[in-house]
Amino acid sequence: FPRLKGKTVLITGASAGFGWHTALAFAENGSNLILLARRLERLEELKTKINASYPSVDVKIYKVDVSSHDDIKQAFKIILEESHRIDVVVNNAGLGQGADPVSTLGAEDMQVMFDTNVKGLVWVTQQVLPSMLERNEGHVINVGSIAGLQITTMGCFYGATKHAVHALTEALRIETVATNIRVSEICPGLAETEFALVRSRGDRDLEKKMLDGLTPLTAQDVAELIVFTASTHPRCVISQSVIVPSCQANTFIMHRKT
Ligand code: NDP
Ligand code: 8X3
């Protein structure tokens, strides 16, 4: 996509899954990258890979925990000094932690999911938005979930945080409608990344059971959609996209091959 060449794209949660592959897909299109995650060694590995394949792409990496407002404020003092212009922000960092019902939801799980998936997304947006408003251009792409449109039985609080992402994405679109800033929400269904392992608290048997008989999306599938969303002419915005594997009808109905 020639429109993406030379653009600067900030991606949160770039050390794995969708974020990692989205970074590679933007690099392939000649975009410069600002990559954030807690695991700096993974970001270093990705930077080395991108530098080897796309030497003209500038890659900056930062260790940031998006669930911490202090961490974000400190990191962005440096990020905004080192990169004066951010064209696209992909708010992708997020997680499910456990899948308990409302009756037994744990306080710590709720806090981690809410702080990461909801507050972190808002805090990162708040850092990038002022200069977008000043330039009257920019694109905010939020990674929600199909669980943000229809509640899932595989984690009600996770689904609640993604409903919040949906609401906040709509709110930002309303807030910026008089500007050239574009706001998009990407809602993936079941995908094979580190997500299932994190949600099952590292339980590989449970992870395997969740995916058994299903052919999930790959991280590349979702990355392609994100990059396409960023590539359209500035006069249009793909405001919301739902991408699911063909074995998934909605959050409840999945066809398992036995
Ligand atoms: P992965 O677990 O593979 O990747 C999650 C990424 O988020 C990692 O890079 C991780 O980096 C980062 N992250 C998590 N917590 C934080 C934090 N506190 N601060 C900074 N970065 C953090 O999962 P996916 O790629 O699947 O998930 C990406 C997004 O897609 C999430 O928002 C998820 O909710 C959403 N999603 C996933 C679906 C799926 O089935 N896989 C379906 C629909 C939506 P690190 O640990 O290094 O900090
Ligand atoms: C997670 C989507 O379908 O695995 O965001 O609950 S699903």
Walk me through what this model shows.
Strands 3-2-1-4-5-6-9 form a seven-stranded parallel beta sheet, with helices on both faces. The chain has a two-stranded parallel ribbon with strand order 7-8. The mean pLDDT is 97. With 258 residues, the protein is α/β, with parallel strands linked by helices. Helix 1 (17-28) links the parallel strand 1 and strand 2. The longest helix is centred in the middle third of the chain and has 29 residues, at 107-135. It contains eight helices and nine strands. The chain has one domain (2-243): NAD(P)-binding Rossmann-like Domain (Rossmann fold, 3-Layer(aba) Sandwich). The radius of gyration is 18 Å and the shape is globular. 45% of the residues lie in helices and 16% in strands. Residues 12-19, 37-39, 42, 64-67, 92-95, 116, 143, 145, 188, 190-191, 193-195, 198, 219 line the site of NADPH dihydro-nicotinamide-adenine-dinucleotide phosphate.
